[in-house]
Specification:
Elements: H1 5-21, H2 23-30, H3 32-61, H4 65-94, H5 99-103, H6 130-144
């Protein structure tokens, strides 16, 4: 059920009062600072990744495996941070900026099938030995490929 005009007006007044009282908290709720933080993290992770590549190459050139391993670990860590921050940035961008859209209970919810998914599995054959099953497979392949 959508909000009435008076409820929307009261909600906007509450939002204005909140943003005047605590602008940092209000920007966090809007998601703007989350996107900025995620972007900064991704850029810093990219710079660390380049430093990790430099360490890896330095270790390879100087034949110091410890330096190369440290460079690889720096690359791995920065890549992980970059991917998680990019996912966070995408999630923050997908959130509605309009609070009236976010207030509606049906926004952002989808139907998820619960339980196990029905997969078409081949019935397990317990009869026969390993060699008999392999011979049966071989025979089926030869029949499908025209005797070859």
């Amino acid at each position: 059920m959508p909000l009435s005009e008076e409820e929307l007006r009261l909600l906007e007044q509450m939002e204005r009062a909140l943003s005047e009282e605590d602008p940092k908290f209000a920007s966090t709720l809007r998601g703007t600072s989350l996107r900025r933080t995620a972007r900064r993290r991704a850029i810093a992770a990219g710079a660390c990744f380049v430093a990790g590549v430099a360490l890896l190459m330095t270790g390879a050139v100087t034949q110091l495996p410890v330096v190369g391993i440290v460079g690889f670990l720096v690359m791995l860590g920065s890549g992980t941070v970059a991917l998680t921050s990019m996912r966070g940035q995408a999630a923050a961008a997908a959130a509605p900026a309009d609070p009236r859209q976010a207030a509606h209970p049906s926004r952002g919810f989808t139907v998820i099938d619960g339980g196990r998914k029905s997969r078409t599995r081949r019935p397990r054959r317990t009869s026969g030995s390993f060699m008999e099953r392999m011979e049966e497979r071989w025979r089926r392949r030869r029949e499908q490929n025209g005797g070859f």
